[in-house]
Predict the structure.
Amino acid sequence: MKLVVFLFAVFTVVTAQAQGGWTKSKGEGYYQISYTGFASDQYYNLDGELLTTNEFAQSSVVVYGEYGLGSNIALVTNFVGFRWNGFESTETVSGIGDLYLAIQYALKKGKLPISLTLGPEIPTGRSELFAQSKTISFEKINLPTGDGEWNVRAFLAASYPFQKLPIYISSHVTWNFRTTYDNTKLSDQYGAGFEVGYNPIKPLWLIAKTGILGSPGTPASGVDFVRGEGTSFGSTDFVASYKLWNNFSIMTGVRFFNDFIVQKANMYDGTNYTFGIAYQLQKSELPE
């Protein structure tokens, strides 16, 4: 049984707040727990060729948070609290994922807020987690819940709220400084994106996002696909968030992948669905 291994980190949930230039003030906070999942048998290899494999399914519970430590600085965290992986031909394996812990600094506030977020992704997940074949007793495949290496993500974002319209726009660029796994230096990753938020009625936000992820240079040889070498894709997200009561809100989102700007490579192409609940501590700087 020959199976193509997936890139674990591609489908981590990124909230709308993480892509804005606003920084939480001291004592303010935003916390979200969400569930995301997808299933696909469409795999793009390192050369961008589309292969049909056994269907692969992944689902995750992700905890995201922001908390203001001072007037210009906040703590940001994104933790894959639990993840399930499995092919239709294997058992499903599960465990905790990696932890991103960062400091966000407000470079500029006011009508055009700009922020820089910088921090490590800690390899708390299991980098070796084998799923047993359902049909062949001696076959198994590595479906880890973490990528097994330390890396540092830098994230620069800017936003603009329209004063007379219930609309904001944001853009961001990001760079992932990767280290080594099993004595092999892994390629860095870059990304960029743009989003528009619309507030048609007070409790409801509608958000559309588009972005790219890529890796510069030639992927390291001898590294299995699960480490993300040479991964690239474009994506489009649609998110809706509705405030319920006492600063609690519910959100749902869907993500589609594309190759408009960068070629799809080393990734499973399947529609992602997300559902979550969030709590806002005190008043956010995001325009209401």
User: Anything to note?
Assistant: Residues 1-18, 284-288 have pLDDT under 50 and may be disordered. The two ends are 54 Å apart (CA to CA). The first strand starts at residue 29 and ends at 44.
